Amino acid sequence: MTGGERSDGGRLRIALVHSYHHTEVPSGENVVVDAQAQALQDAGHEVVVVAQHNDLRRRRRTYPLEAAATVATGIGPDPTAMLRRIAPDVVHVHNLFPNFGTRWLARWDGPLVATLHNFRPICPAGTLLRDGKRCTDCIVTPRSAVTHGCFQNSRVATLPLALATRGGATQHPVVRRADRLITISQRAADEYLAAGVSAEKLTVVPNAVTDLADPAGPVVADGERTDHVHAPRWLFVGRLSAEKGVDALLERWPAHLPIDLVGSGELAADLEARFADRPEIRFLGGMGNEEVRRLLGRYTGLVVPSQWAEAGPPLTYVEALASRVPVVAFAGNGAADDVARHGTGVVVDRRPDPADLAVALKDVQRDRTALSRRARATYDQHFSTRAWVQALTETYRETIHG
């Protein structure tokens, strides 16, 4: 739809297309899109975000039916007219579910990149997880997802997603149309390769967060130095849901070792009731992204117990690295992959023995100074906005000239 890359010093005009998740539950995808737009603009590119917002659309009583019909048929809000006015060098699709249609993709003939933030093209739930165990039934046919009500524990809610993915990954509208597909980890790329997606389409670009100042030196919280050796305290940040593994974490958590949990979700009330007699376990409720960033440096480490494969390291993990906070991760999730690769903490079994978990926590506490240095170095090299923008613009230019 455009005449190719502009000649004004390599400056690109980029359209980001994204359906924003509702703000009642913090969304890493929303944070990524906003951070990417800002980072690309700061690098001198022109960026326009073409968006739909759950918070606005959910006000209509007919919204559930509208969203279901859009997901099932691909007929729905179409950004084509706005994209034509913008005339971008490249379109970057993030999330179309559930507020954008998908049929417009086949009609758009300009360069198009898409980020696969999850596994929804091969799994209606987006997690490759069912009943706490890995599940790939729907790579072949999504019928199993409907039978088990994998999305929102509802067969009715799952049906539109099953219809949308009935042709397999290679026939998913986004996967089929995109010139380049970005995954945020090699693990995710491998899952899509196994599902039949062409390797030539796939490229790995890890998510980044807005650059955070390096908190080198003594860690300060509310004007006081935090002594991580004599006053350890741990942090969990995420949705209080089964796939996040928080119940498995708390069942194994060492007695009398303080841990704070930031987040909300369907398990919140049950977990608070079950662990009410454990004063070392504190539920702080949901918090905004900026508030979490301010808290991170106060903790000995971050715990990531996610039970699902994850498409990549969660943003909270990246923010922990930037804050020089090491990580204990349960094997099999996106954070664990990166911890093992870069030595930013300790990986334990997916459902660790309580004694093994206690040892891992003590090891991090003992080696925290060295792990903190490694965490920040990993952030600077792999997850900073400088590295992110470079990888994105290389992908855009390869797509434009491809």
UniProtKB/TrEMBL annotation:
Where in the numbering of this chain does the SRP54-type proteins GTP-binding domain appear?
258-271
A molecular function (GO) held by this record is: glycosyltransferase activity
Listed A to Z, the keywords are: Glycosyltransferase, GTP-binding, Nucleotide-binding, Transferase
Which SUPFAM superfamilies is this protein grouped with?
UDP-Glycosyltransferase/glycogen phosphorylase
The top EC class is: transferase
Show the Pfam families listed in the entry: Glyco_trans_1_4, Glyco_transf_4
Q: What is its EC number?
A: 2.4.-.-
Name of the protein in its database record: Glycosyltransferase family 4 protein
Q: Which organism is it from?
A: Actinomycetospora termitidis
